[in-house]
Each structure stands twice: as C-alpha cells, then as structure tokens.
DNA sequence: CGTCCATCGTTCGTACACAAACAATTCAAA
DNA sequence: TTTGAATTGTTTGTGTACGAACGATGGACG
C-alpha cells in the first residue's frame, strides 16, 4: 500500500530527506482514480445539463423518473435504493418532482409507514422523452472512446460500481 | 396463448404490447455511463472517508492541500483550476482549511485582486501524511480489478476526463 | 489618456450527498 | 403476547457543485 523503502539498517538524514521529497512529488493528484472519476463525472453532468436543458431535469430527478416508470410504483426508500440515493437525498428530489407535478405520493394502506410514489400522466410523458435524451447523453459521454474501448470501459467501470 | 407468427402485415395487440415493453425496458439506468460513474465515485468517496477519518479531510480539502504542497503557493482561482473546482466551491473549501490552520491567505502586493495561498507548517505535515493515505485509497478503489485491467481502466478513464 | 474587456474573489440561490438523530410503525422472537 | 429490533420517512447540519450577478482591479487597445 503506502510506499515502503527496501529494508535497510540505518538511514542518513539525507536519505530520509530525499525519500520524503520523492514521496511528495511522487503522488500526482491528476493520476489518481478518485480525482479522475470526479472529473469524468463533472464532464458527464455538463453534457447532461446541456442536453436536458429544455426538460429542466437534473441527473437525479431523471434517474428517479426513469426508474419509477420502470417499476410502476415504489415507496420512497425503495426507489432510493433502486437509484442509489439515500433517504435524505431522496427527500429533496421527490419533493421537487412532486412540486412540478411529475410524481404523486399517497400513503400505503397496507403499511402506514410507507408512501407510495407513482408517475402522473405528465410525468410519464416527460420520462419517455427524457429516456431518448438519456441515450444520446450516454453516447456523447463515451464519444472520446472508440467502439471496442467503449465496451471495455463499461465492463471495467461496472466492476467498480457494485 | 399468443402465438408468434413471423413477418406479417398487421400486428396483433400482443405484438404491439411486446414492442412497447421492449422499448420501455430498452433504456436501463444501471447500464448508463453517467449512473455508473456516479456510483463508482460514491464508492470511492466512501473508501476515502473511511481511510481519511482520523485526518478529517474531505476529498476536495485533500486535493487542495496536496496541490498547494506541489506548487508551493497559488491564488485561489489558480488553485481551483489545478484541482478542478470553480471559484464558488473553492471559497468554502479554502475557508474551512484556513479555519483549521492548514492554509494561510495573504494579499498579493503585485496584483491587488489576488489572494495568495500557502500551507502552514501543520498544513505541510498533514499533506505529507495524507498523501500516503491517498495511495492506499487509490489502490483500494481499484482493488476489484486485476493488474492489467487496472492499467486499461485508468487509460480509458483519462480520455473521459480531459 | 481613457475605454472596454478579462480576471479575481465574493455572495446568493438551487441542488445533490450523506451522517446522525428522531418518531411512527411493523415484525419477529422470547 | 409483549418486548425489542428493524424499517420508513423526516429533519438538521456539514460539505460539495455550479450558475449568475457583483464590485474591484488589471491590461490591451485605439
């Protein structure tokens, strides 16, 4: 894991200083997975924002809409798990979608803890339209890669996002 | 019950329904780059948080610290560009690092718009310690991949984060 | 010399992201 | 059957993320 120098008995101050120096410039931020993942994600959301501008949907609102259209209905927490959002984040996302009239929320008669979410008619329309754009956005995001690189990347990325 | 006859002029209700179904499930959220990038990034920050817990550094605070230790000194906007943060985000990150006494800020005598950032002694120490952990975190993040897959992934990811 | 334009840092508003604590409810095990 | 653990949704607090507008400064141009 962290760099360890080969086992030697004693090290001079010089050697220690040199090692420390090497260690300092050795770690390059722009080559680290985390930083690159963040930047790739930044680029993707920029593309997303641009293509989804006229629908005024954020990536998370989009995800919730699409997923809800898949499963028909779901409780808040359940939809959150399906879209990889925690309950607190879901709170805000759903609130805004309800305010826009794309989603409806009603209590579950069988379990009074639950709130059942469904799409409104308008929500269904927007979801359909958005899914089309979603496809374009994915293509644009992967544009810098050739066909086979694209497949390879998606396969590997899938293993880092279990 | 629905018998599927090959190529016919008219389509049965069954067939139309099946097509619609196929179309609906055609766009699968969990297979889209954006969603997977987001989840991979989530996983990485979880690993980061865990390993960096005792230093109490967030990924962005870490990035600013490391980069500033690389370049010695920088204006806020400049450091922001080096770490891929916009000016508004930088504001908060720097504010918290100054509050913790890891960074110092003083006006640039040559350009009165600029604020020059430098590490404090403690900031330098923390940066050094954090860089070590940074290695571990990168390794852990890429752990699900084998050696050659790791290299391939980083190469491809680099093209999506220009 | 003045004017226009870019850059610097700041603030405001919106939207994630998630830990932590909470009340209400459900469910399982003693 | 009653106690206790787990689940559901909510709120609070901290920290990104970024568009948009702002005042102050600097530099290039005619």
Write the layout of secondary structure elements.
2 copies of one chain form a homodimer.
Chain A: H1 13-26, H2 33-51, H3 59-71, E1 73-75, H4 76-83, H5 87-99, E2 103-107, E3 115-119, H6 121-141, H7 147-160
Chain A binds a DNA duplex (30 and 30 nucleotides) through residues 42, 45, 49, 58-61, 75-77, 85-93, 96, 111-115.
What is the CA-atom radius of gyration of chain A, in angstroms?
23 Å
Kindly state the mean pLDDT of chain A as a whole number?
89
Shape of chain A: globular
Share in β-strands of chain A: 5-15%
Strand order of the largest sheet of chain A: 1-3-2
In this structure, how is the largest beta sheet of chain A organized? 3 strands, antiparallel
Task: Report the order of strands and helices of chain A.
Answer: HHHEHHEEHH
Structural class of chain A: mainly alpha
Low-confidence stretches of chain A: 1-8
Number of helices of chain A: 7
